[in-house]
Amino acid sequence: MTLHPYWARSQKGLTGGETWQDMVVGRVSSMSEQLRQQSRDDFKVEKDKCEMYGFFERNNIPFVPLVGMWDTKEGLVEYLEKMRDSKEHQEKYVFPLWLKSCHLTQGDDAGRIRITKKDLADEKKFREVVGWIRLKWAQKPNDDARAWSDDAKIILHSLKPRFLIQQSFKGPYGDSVGFPKSAPVELKVEVIWGRAYLANICDYEAYALRDGTIERWDTSIFSKVAHVPLTSDEDNKNVLWLKKEGHLEKVYKLAEQVCKAMHADQVRVDIFVRPGDNSAVMVNEISISPGALYKWHAQFMATAWRTGHTTHAYTLLKSEKKVYEEGMHKGKLGNGEDW
Length: 339
What we know:
alpha+beta
């Protein structure tokens, strides 16, 4: 494994007893320190969603197509007004569109909204979209619910407001295979030292392991205390299509491609899949400070992550580029549809 110097500096003073959360806390602490002492903002590969998609583009990583990126709210509103007035322009894209703030988290900061063609056509709804843009442009990002929130604040407050518009991932969605929501089926894959360990199957409460085993957990006291997952085909019949249609191997391969392009020791890669079409795997986003605790797998994942550092099981990448600048293709982000 070739490790970028930024990640090599991210785990200092390991004692051998760190938990999964300790490893994440250590990474965020290092990112804050490297920003303060060396002005390194490599964390933008994930924390700045605009840079994240630019990184994907430079490394031939498939993702849900964008309409564009904007670094002024005036330019973004002007573009939406242009789209509003042109049905022909709207037909170029898969609706609903997703308006996302690159500097805010999509969860706690509520940094995204859904835009339909009706939202563009209706004057009141359109003005609500414009008001949301102005509100979110001024909002400071936070990660306050985490153990690393103090260091995260230093990192996140260094980001400049930018927005992007993204098309929708085409269905069929989860409701077509027995999932509770009509939403894209998403697998959140933890990759450690270039190898996918597990995929969290969202909206189903199960893990798919690298060897194809599917572990579903229930809410019983016995399951919570004894950590006994449900692994039979009968218990997991609603997700067997992920194996039978060949999605899992493609998801793991794509997640590992992302990790290797980042030259990272760990990254979570969130990937959309489409039932009935295993060629449609696409990255949604990534996380370099995941908040999930991974139940009975956490201690093993922490050991794998930690041991790579304590045994120096990597070759250091010779590069002065920031992580988000790495890639086969050169170029900086533009503005508007020419992003």
